[in-house]
């Protein structure tokens, strides 16, 4: 059997197939996105301006519209890129942990979220901060946005299927209301997690939102004066949420 090609070889082959015009277009698109990210970091997403991006690129603003038909289209591309970068980081960390180490996989994914958010605070704010006035995210952002929560919820699903999900930390939680149970079933159907009991799925979603809440509070400065070092607090939050769902260390 021929030896598998490396990623670098595949990339070279892909480039060889693309025309100079296509490569130039891809490079200019990257320049547009890079400058847009810098503008967002400096002035916020609401202030993103196609005209200002064009000025920095030293081209007519009309040239940008051949790449992005509107400012909202440019924002959408930036949002998809941010979701993708975050999911890539979390998936890479998750993949380094043994498949049957469910707690370790949960911890790795959650800590990768915090690490990426600290490395890319303005991109994190773009997707998890205040909505951009007048912008409505289109359907095409959903797939990229769903990769990370599905990764974390998938850890719980795998633990459940393996019979490794322990009893939740709080066994006296009230039964789900009918509306909540209905929403849980809808979410399960949309994510392919129908095998999870409603209560387990809801606990997992709550755990995921609590983890993101801890990241957001830290990133937006709401822990100032509370915790001198946020890392131990975040690690404790991750572990408590895992315990609440029923994820346990391997024995």
Automatic annotation (TrEMBL):
Q: Where is this region: Disordered?
A: 1-21
What Gene Ontology molecular-function terms does this entry list? DNA-binding transcription factor activity; transcription cis-regulatory region binding
Feature: compositional bias, Low complexity: 1-16
Q: Which organism is it from?
A: Actinopolymorpha rutila
Extract the SUPFAM superfamilies matched here: Homeodomain-like (SSF46689), Tetracyclin repressor-like, C-terminal domain (SSF48498)
Keywords from UniProt, A to Z, are: DNA-binding, Transcription, Transcription regulation
Please report the name of this protein according to its UniProt entry.
Answer: AcrR family transcriptional regulator
Which N-terminal residues, if any, form the signal peptide?
A: none
């Amino acid at each position: 059997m021929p030896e598998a090609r490396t990623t670098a070889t595949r990339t070279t082959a892909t480039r060889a197939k693309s025309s100079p015009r296509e490569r130039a277009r891809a490079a200019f698109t990257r320049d547009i996105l890079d400058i847009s990210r810098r503008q967002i970091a400096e002035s916020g997403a609401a202030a993103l301006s196609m005209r200002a991006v064009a000025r920095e690129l030293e081209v007519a603003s009309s040239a940008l519209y051949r790449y992005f038909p509107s400012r909202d289209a440019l924002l959408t591309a930036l949002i998809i890129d941010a979701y993708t970068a975050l999911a890539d980081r979390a998936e890479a960390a998750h993949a380094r942990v043994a498949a049957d180490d469910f707690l370790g996989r949960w911890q790795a994914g959650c800590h990768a979220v915090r690490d990426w958010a600290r490395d890319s605070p303005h991109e994190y704010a773009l997707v998890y901060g205040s909505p951009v006035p007048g912008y409505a995210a289109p359907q095409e952002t959903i797939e990229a946005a769903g990769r990370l929560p599905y990764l974390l919820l998938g850890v719980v699903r795998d633990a459940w299927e393996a019979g490794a999900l322990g009893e939740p930390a709080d066994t006296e939680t009230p039964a789900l209301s009918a509306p909540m149970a209905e929403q849980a079933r809808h979410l399960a159907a949309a994510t392919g997690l129908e095998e999870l009991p409603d209560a387990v799925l809801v606990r997992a979603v709550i755990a995921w939102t609590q983890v993101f809440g801890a990241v957001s509070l830290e990133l937006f400065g709401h822990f100032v004066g509370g915790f001198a070092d946020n890392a131990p607090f975040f690690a404790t939050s991750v572990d408590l949420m895992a315990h609440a769902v029923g994820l346990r260390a391997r024995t």
